[in-house]
Design a protein that fits this description.
Strand order of the largest sheet: 3-4-7-8-9-10-11
Structural class: alpha/beta
Helix content: 25-40%
Mean pLDDT: 83
Low-confidence stretches: 1-24, 322-369
Amino acid sequence: MRWTNQQLNQPLLTEQAPATAPLLPLAGLVKSVQTPEFAGITFHEVLSKSALNKVPPSSTMPFEWTVNPYRGCSHACVYCFARKSHTYLDFDPGVDFDSQVVVKVNVAQVLRKELFKPSWGRHHVALGTNTDPYQRAEGRYGLMPGIISALADSGTPFSILTKGTLLARDIPLLRRAAADVSIGMGISLALLDEDLAQRLEPGTPSPKARLALISKLRDAGLPCGVMAMPILPWLTDSDEALDQLFAALARAGATGVSAGALYLRPGTREWFMQWLAREHPALVGRYRRLYGTGAYAPKEYRQWLAAKVNEARARNGFSAQGFVHDPRQDEARYPSGSMPEASNFRIGHEKAGTPEGIPASAAFSPTLF
């Protein structure tokens, strides 16, 4: 089912009958529930002891802290890099990742306590780095307003990356938060073909709905970068597809675009190749030759794609920066969608290209884990 608008007016999950238990007990599990409005999906409600996640010092990610209100994601994107993380919960990275969603029902309260400890250094916090905080479940659980308020009230800068049009619900709250802290906004959108999108990412809002969300953010005076990832060999990497995408993003008012090739890490690779065999069997051999047994497209392909992306970017008024050459960083960055410092923030930036107050060479904002 395609979701142009995610619904908010459904009965509470607590009114539904319990579902079967998860494969193995989850830490802090309160109950597992199902509801007809989310056919085929089980929500495992847990009480979390902590909300802030410290990125390991050995990580190459350009940030130190993340918050993930959900684990698993009903967006069901076949290429999602985070699929393997579901195996840490003793779920599989395929069907379970799409249908067994862990909900940290107390995340906002726990986060507020952590942020107001004297030891908290107000480091940048990234959201949308493992699974989408505005997936459909957010319309029912409503965790993000409490998270945003806790971050803003504590003076903590943050960024959000999402495919979820439910973000529009929180635009007034984000505008108020921007008066106090630096905010980064990013929308994930890598293709315009509605039919292909429905097959690749069946639980997401349509490309048209996400373009409208970009415009809503820009009309509200909020910058909005776009992560055009992944670009799929032989499916979305043609001159025509890239030019149409960048033109649509420019019309919507995107403040910048990052693009990068498909990254097939273990857990994702197997699931994506099964999808490819069903949907585009003629491409299976090509993908096997291109990716070999690893996760990365060859350097030669990435350089070729970078040239095409930069040409499409230039034709549509975007700055030349923003192609991610290192696939290990593909999901760690998005373009100039960072909010300027609160003292410099002004409503009414012009649409398209780089808005006033956001330099074209602005550093990427962090968004992972």
